[in-house]
Automatic annotation (TrEMBL):
Stored SUPFAM superfamilies: Nucleic acid-binding proteins (SSF50249)
GO cellular component: cytoplasm
Residue stretches in coiled coil: none
Gene Ontology BP terms: rRNA processing
PANTHER family named in the record: RIBONUCLEASE, RIBONUCLEASE G
GO molecular function, one term: metal ion binding
Name by which UniProt lists this protein: Ribonuclease G
Location of the S1 motif domain: 38-110
Organism encoding this protein: Alkalibacter saccharofermentans DSM 14828
Length: 480
């Protein structure tokens, strides 16, 4: 079945969109998160950097937003940024990219307000059409109608959902979106101030992903029930009976979604063929490596490789969408130097693009046969929402092994050589490092960790655990 499943629990919403009972899209939202994508603010210009052609704008968050000259509209004379805006100026801006890591939100003055059928572009005049609407008669019908009713100084994007819709509901939504924009412009506030917040994650998911092919909208709480019913009353009154309330804490278990969600946090994913992919996230880009793994395939090695690469492409596209990966994505396929193999991969990616509502671009293969993709950032990735940098490995994914820890202790002892005047000293470590020692009991020489130190220095060594120690903190002190 095709469902939208909404689990609300103690300030957290998890939303799954399924097709044929398989996870197609997944979103997490918490009250503690400062989600800003699409929000419109009255901001204040705090600093201008002419050399970079950017301005830093205070929108009320921990970090100032970044407004680049190319995102300031209008600027018909291509003036430099210090001639377009001034320090201390109040300016209406919209968040086009969420803040990530040390980087502040990316801002723009090319505003948009999304509806179910239309996206209003208040600073443009053109009419755009979703690329997924290909029927020329339908395109002409929609454009001709809108040209007669839209304001001359506003532009519009027809979303995919507008195809086949009645002109009456489109006109009604245009009036609604224009009313929103007039309200935003009528508000006068001292910056920084939030002027407009996009729909919450639940309604936004229904707006973006509900279709008449959706069989059910399932909730485990009545927190959003009335809001969803109101939305359906306006857009899908004949589908109100598809809304289903199930009072259960974790309804994802009922639809076998938890195993699929757990895969979203895995670095290594096995393919059905026996191959696997590795997904590594860095601040600059995402790197994905395709490996043959346990797959031996047929006698023809080229056919084996092509099959793994095509299967990997489907899985990567699926994970890219579910994890909401964005920015630069580099994929290292298996032995894909031949042009005919590259063409098959590109064709498969174009097939998969129809399932992704977020725009991405196939840049192409590099000289080293690595596929380059760029994907637009809309909101935060699953990793950024649910993971934090490990305080022990500082994000590398690697920690001290027992032997490296042994030599780290040697260095500390050598630094405090006076300790060797004592017949006994103690090493104070965290519970984590104690576990490292216990789990890797013996070196290749047949000694345990403390035995190695005792053998090396001919003294007695005691291991002491202090729960207040940092993960990798080591203190070496004389024993009483």
């Amino acid at each position: 079945m095709n469902r939208i499943v909404i689990e609300t629990m103690m300030g957290q919403n998890r939303i799954a969109v399924t097709r044929d009972d398989q996870l197609e899209h997944f979103f997490t939202d918490r009250e503690s998160d400062w989600n800003t994508y699409g929000n419109i603010y009255m901001g204040r210009v705090e600093q201008i950097k002419p050399g970079m052609q950017v301005a830093f704008v205070n929108i009320g968050g921990d970090k100032n937003g970044l407004l680049h000259l190319s995102d300031i509209y209008p600027n018909p004379d291509n003036l430099p940024i210090d001639k377009v805006i001034k320090k201390g100026q109040d300016i209406i801006v919209q968040v086009k990219k969420e803040a990530v890591g040390t980087k502040g939100a990316r801002l723009t003055t090319k505003y948009w307000i999304s509806g179910h059928y239309l996206v209003l572009l208040p600073t443009e005049e053109k009419i755009y059409m979703s690329k997924k609407i290909r029927d020329k008669e339908e395109i002409n019908r929609l454009k001709t109608f809108l040209e007669d009713i839209k304001p001359a100084d506003a532009g519009v994007i027809f979303r995919t959902e507008s195809e086949g819709s009645s002109l009456e509901v489109i006109e009604k939504e245009l009036d609604y979106l224009m009313g929103k924009w007039r309200l935003i412009n009528s508000r006068i506030h001292i910056a920084p101030k939030l002027l407009f917040k996009d729909k919450g994650p639940v309604i936004k998911t229904i707006r973006d992903y509900y279709t008449t092919k959706t069989d059910q909208v399932v909730l485990n709480s009545d927190a959003y029930l009335e809001e969803i019913k109101d939305y359906f009353s306006n857009y899908f009154p004949e589908d109100l009976d598809k809304i289903k309330l199930v009072h259960k804490l974790n309804i994802f278990d009922d639809y076998d979604l938890e195993p699929q969600i757990r895969e979203l946090y895995a670095r290594k994913l096995w393919l059905k063929s026996g191959g696997y992919i590795i997904i590594d996230n860095t601040e600059a880009f995402t790197v994905i490596d395709v490996n043959s793994g346990k797959f031996t395939g047929h006698k023809d090695p080229e056919e084996t490789i092509a099959r793994i690469n095509l299967e990997a492409t489907e899985v990567i596209a699926h994970q890219m969408r579910l994890r909401n990966l964005s920015g630069i994505i580099l994929i290292d396929y298996i032995n894909i130097s031949k042009d005919k193999h590259k063409e098959k991969i590109i064709k498969k990616w174009r097939e998969m693009s129809s399932r992704d509502k977020v725009r991405f671009k196939l840049v192409g293969f590099t000289e080293l046969s690595i596929l380059q993709i760029t994907r637009k950032q809309e909101g935060k990735s699953i990793v950024n929402i649910n993971r934090q940098t490990c305080p022990l490995c500082d994000g590398t994914g690697d920690v001290y092994n027992q032997e490296a820890f042994f030599y780290k202790c040697l260095a500390k002892i050598e630094n405090d050589i006076y300790l060797l005047n004592h017949n006994r000293f103690k090493i104070v470590i965290s519970p984590y490092l104690k576990n490292v020692i216990d789990e890797h009991k013996y070196f290749g020489h047949g000694f345990s960790f403390d035995q190695m130190l005792e053998e090396f220095y001919k003294v007695k060594v005691d291991i002491e655990v202090n729960i207040n120690n940092e993960f990798d903190q080591v203190a070496i002190l004389p024993s009483n």
